[in-house]
Amino acid sequence: MHKTSGQIRAIKKIDTTDLSPREVAHEIAIMRFLRHENVVRCYDVFLEGQYVHVVMDMFNGGDLVDGLNVHRRAHGRLPSRQLRNLASQMSQAIAHVHALQIIHRDVKGENFLSDRPNIGDPAVKVGDRSSGVKW
């Protein structure tokens, strides 16, 4: 639970052993800079030894690929309307990142997170920004 907000949050633990201090600072700056309804929000960042801990939105639905696979096994293919909704949310997230002159170099389903296991009507957010670079 996040101390300030009282909300349940996730903490992503990043090993900085193979990163330079400049790379770590760059990643933290990008995480704090991005604010959009389809981008996972970074609430806080703290260092502990060789690890950076990122306090961020909690997602109980897992990633998009897992959600689509679960849906396909239980209900068959996702209808076109729902696929368009997912694609729209994904496109809006990447468009926002690009509008800020940041390139997300690892756009894939595993890096989009769903707020619920029911992939039929989720809110989807891009979550992994560790490969973002400013142009």
TrEMBL record:
Cross-link (Glycyl lysine isopeptide (Lys-Gly) (interchain with G-Cter in SUMO2)): 108
Domain of life: Eukaryota
Domain Protein kinase, residue spans: 1-135
Residue numbers binding ATP: 12, 110-111
Active site: 106
GO molecular function, one term: ATP binding
Keyword set, alphabetical order: ATP-binding, Kinase, Nucleotide-binding, Serine/threonine-protein kinase, Transferase
PROSITE patterns cross-referenced by the UniProt entry: PROTEIN_KINASE_DOM
Membrane-spanning segments: none
Matches recorded under InterPro entries: Aur-like, Kinase-like_dom_sf, Prot_kinase_dom
Signal peptide residues on this chain, from the entry's feature table: none
SMART domains: S_TKc
Pfam families referenced in this protein's UniProt entry, alphabetically: Pkinase
PANTHER family xrefs: SERINE/THREONINE-PROTEIN KINASE IAL-RELATED (PTHR24350)
Protein name according to UniProt: Protein kinase domain-containing protein
